[in-house]
């Protein structure tokens, strides 16, 4: 299956916290980072998610924000992955920012050209990808 989500991160379920309707699934990535997905309890059951199960986390580039400096700033977004900008492709309206998270793992963000300019983003710069747990879709091999 081909998927349009630019970010396809393979990982392993670390933990699952079930609520009344939604569950919080923590996924360990190969570089040691973790991301959190907020999905329905029904999806946890249908995907047969358990600790240690391999999953793929899908995150559309348009739901990822880029922050140039988050020192001493607290955010409600659970997913904050620090890395180094490896490439920026500027379009007429949007820029595609590629972030190297280390250990061969990367993440793409689609932000406005204006935002990229205001943040003075450039290759080699440290940055943080920020996205909410609800923006993460989990998939498993059939």
UniProtKB/TrEMBL annotation:
Keyword Chaperone belongs to the record: no
Domain of life: Bacteria
Keyword Manganese: no
Gene Ontology biological-process entries: molybdate ion transport
Pfam families in alphabetical order: TOBE
PANTHER family (UniProt xref): DNA-BINDING TRANSCRIPTIONAL DUAL REGULATOR MODE, TRANSCRIPTIONAL REGULATOR MODE
Descriptive protein name: Molybdenum-pterin-binding-protein
Taxon lineage: Bacteria, Pseudomonadati, Pseudomonadota, Betaproteobacteria, Neisseriales
